[in-house]
Amino acid sequence: MTKQQVYDFLDAKKIWHEITEHPAVYNMEELAQVELPYPDRDAKNLFVRDDKRRNYYLITVWGDKRVNLKDFRRKQGTKPLTFASPEELQEILGLIPGAVTPLGLFHDTECKVHFYIDRDFWQGSGLIGIHPNDNTATVWLKAEDLVALLREHGTTVDIVELD
Questions:
Q1: 25 pLDDT tier (thresholds 50, 70, 90)
Q2: Which of 44, 50, 86, 99 has its CA 20 to 30 A from that of 26?
């Protein structure tokens, strides 16, 4: 899905959302320079795989949170984890580095990526800010709506506490 197709999809599903257009950002430091309406609700997304390249995971946390992959592995019972390559990111999620987003999971037609989202997104407003498959915008929606859409697609989703 292109950025516009993401917006059209959300409209068609009657999902409330807001859009913030901005210059391309490739990491959280660059995003911190952008004026956002909900700066404490932006998401950081890590696309990782196990050492055998059999299992893929997308981990989504608040933008200022660090994820210890060894702790994550221990708590979730996975094999050793490493970041997926740019080629794997393109092949499986149809995304480039710097544009990783849970919305890329709609490109995963085999639903082989397991999605983990931090429970913290349910605090307060319940909003999450993610790229619309393009790093020149952030789309804001309710985390519960995002999870419902992904589960409807067939993606395995776990809402977990991530330190």
A1: confident
A2: 50
